[in-house]
Structure formats: C-alpha cells, structure tokens
Amino acid sequence: MYPQFSSRVKLFSIAMTSVALLSACQEAPPAAESAGMPPAQVSIQKVTRESIPITIKLPATLAGNKEVEIRARVPGIVASRNFEEGQKVIAGQSLFTLDLVPFTLEVEKAQAELNAAQASVKQAQRERDRLRKLKNERSASKRDFDNAASNYDIAVANLASAKVVLNEVKLDLEYAQVKSPVSGIIGRELVSEGSYVSGPEILLTQLTETDTMRVLFGFSEREQLQMRKDVDSGSLTLPVNNEFEAQLILQDGSRHNNVGKVNFSDVRVNRYTGTSEMQAKVNNPNGQLRPGQFVRVQLIGAVRNNAVLLPQRAVLDNGTGKFVYVATENEQGAMVALPAPVEVGEWVRVNDGNFWVIRSGLTDGQPVITEGIARIFFPGMPITIVNEGE
User: Fold this and answer.
1) What is the DSSP pairing of strand 294-311 with strand 275-283?
2) Which residue windows are coiled coil (predicted)?
C-alpha cells in the first residue's frame, strides 16, 4: 500500500513541474525581442506626386468589320458554286451561279418587246407628222391629227415601259450570278449544287470582312461610376470623346502590330451583365486576327493626375487589405517600421518597373520602406535607413 502512495506522489510532482515549465514558456517575451535583434537595414522612398499615363485592361472578343449573309435575290436552281470554303474572296466575285437559261430567255423576250416598241414609236411619229402636214393643208381634220398625236405619245410611253422591263430582267440575270458584296473570308456552303432556292429567304453562305476587325468588350457600371467621380474630382483625365487607343494582347502574350481606336460606346447598360458595350476597330491586313477570337484589350489615353507611385514590392497584403511600412521615429527617438493601410488603384509599368498607384492612405513626404521589407518581422521593429530613393 505505501509503495503505491509513493508512486502517486512522484507522478503528481512531475505533472506540477511540467505545468510550471509550460507557464514559464508562455509568459516569456518573443525570442526576437528578448535576444535584442539588431535593426533591419531598409531603403525608403518619400511620397511624391506626379501625373502618370495608365492603361485599362479588359477581356474582349473579335468580330469581322462586316458579317454578310449571302442570299440569292431571285429564285432558281443552283448550277455551280464558285469558291473554295474558308478562302478569301474579293468584292464582285461570283459565289454561286443559278441556272441562267430562264433568265437569258427573259432578257431576249424583253429585248424583242423593246424593239417592237421602238418600231411602234417610229410608225406613230410618221403618222403624226403626215397628218400635221395634211391638217395644215386642210386635207385632214383636227380630230384625226389629235388621234395620231395621242397614238405617238402612247407609243413613247410603251417604249419607256419596255426599257424598264428589259432593265429588270437584265438585273435578274445579274442577280442569278450571286456575287460577293465585299472582300473577306467565305464560310461553308449551306446549299449544294442542284438545289432549288426560292429567293432571299434561303441562306446560301456567310462572308466575313477581316481586313478590319471589331474589338468588342464591356465596361462595368461600377468602374464607369468610379471613373466619372475621378474625372469630376480632377484626379483622372480621359481622352477626348473617350477615343482610347486600343492595343490587343493575344493569347500567347504577344501584342498585335496594329493599334486601333475606340469608336463606339453604348449608353445602355446590359441588365444581365451590368456592363456597357464598347467597340474598337483594328486594321488586320495580314489576317492574323480571326472572328470569335478571345483577346485582351489595353485602353491607352487616360492620365492619373497627382498620383502616388510605389513599387509593387513595397505594398503588402495582410488578408484584410493592402498596407505599406512607414519609417517612423518612436518616443525613444529610434526609427521603427509601422504599417499604414492604403487604397490602391491601377497597376502601371514605368521604366521597366511595376508600380501601384496609391489612391489614399499616405501624405506627401512620408518615408515608405521599399527595400528590406523581408527583414521586418513584426510591426514596430527597429530599422536603419541605408538608402533613400528618389
């Protein structure tokens, strides 16, 4: 019995000793502070303001400058297809040919009727002139002359009508050789040779003009409201009539050679997406850009006025927001690093460096730490300034 009691006493003593040691560890100051860590060597940059061009990056899709539905204006049998699918065609090139025999016959018939009308005009003219001479000699009545004059006028009218009919059937003959209205890339045929088409209601194929491309993108209502506020406050200047230059970034990260210009901004807001549609046009002479392609568009032309720029490495994120470290003198006269929350704006690139535009949170002349931030282990850590940037 006594040995059991002795064992319990030993176990109790060991447990109490462990608790005491754990408490002592929890109450100990941080190792960095207790060890007298030397000040971190840092570089600073004093807050200044300048006007800086900014770019607005948005996702976009491409569409042809003109996307044309090819239809036959007249009914008929498709006799031939005169293009290779997916190839470039030029304006005026025949894409489909309908059976031309019926249209040729109509032209010949109208031409014959025109010839007959011309002959009738000549006959009526001779009769009118003959009766005019007889009337002057009092050998024909005025009534006979008036009838001859009316017959001549009717013959002239019939001739004009015959000319219109001939022009109409010639136009139908032209329409039967379905021609491309613009130059561009032709799509797949939707009606094969030998098929009957009843007229414009039948779609034959589609054609896309690609020498110039439309860049379609949306600008969110929230971003537009913020930009209007910045313009009103004078912190942002936009190009005249919002005619931004448009630089395209392709899927592989390369830039398209030609820079376009924004030429349309819809006043309406899409109720499903909350964006306003905008459009730019970009020249595409080598056909590198294709309809339906996804790109990123950079809008160039806006200027951020009196902006504060800081290197991106100087701006940190603690999960609740962005902040920077500011070199501050404490009550003991030592320099320490204290965090300062900031509101960031655009991400810009200047002289091959990446910078944040700081919208608020800093005042002119404040020394912001830009180098040596990795050596700052806790807020209020002592620092030594070894370099002051411009």
Assistant:
1) unpaired
2) 107-151
DSSP secondary structure string, 129-166? HHHHHHHHTTSS-HHHHHHHHHHHHHHHHHHHHHHHHH
- Do 42 and 385 form a contact (C-beta atoms < 8 A)? yes
Q: Sort 23 into a burial class: Cβ within 10 Å, 0-12 / 13-18 / 19+.
A: exposed
Is residue 346 within 8 Å of residue 357, measured between CB atoms?
yes
CB contact set of 199 (below 8 Å; sequence gap of 6+): 71, 72, 73, 74, 75
The rounded distance, in Å, linking the Cα atoms of 56 and 254 is: 17
In angstroms, the CA 379 to CA 381 distance is: 6
Task: Look at the alpha carbons of 155, 157, 158, 164 in this order and tell me if their dihedral is positive or negative.
Answer: positive
pLDDT at 390: 58
CA distance 54 to 217: 18
Cross-strand bridge partners of residue 37? none
Rounded Cα distance between 348 and 309, Å, is 9
**Both structure tokens of 180:** 């491309």
Give the bridge partners for 282, in sequence order. Answer: 213
Token pair belonging to 116: 């007959």
- Choose among 289, 254, 263, 248: nearest CA to 59: 248
**pLDDT averaged per 10 residues, the chain (length 390):** 38 38 37 61 93 92 94 96 93 96 97 96 91 80 87 95 97 96 93 94 95 93 89 92 93 93 87 89 91 94 92 92 94 92 89 88 94 92 84
What pLDDT score does 63 carry? Answer: 94
Distance CA 74, CA 99 (A): 11
Cβ atoms within 10 A of the Cβ of 367, count? 19
pLDDT for the residue numbered 2 = 38
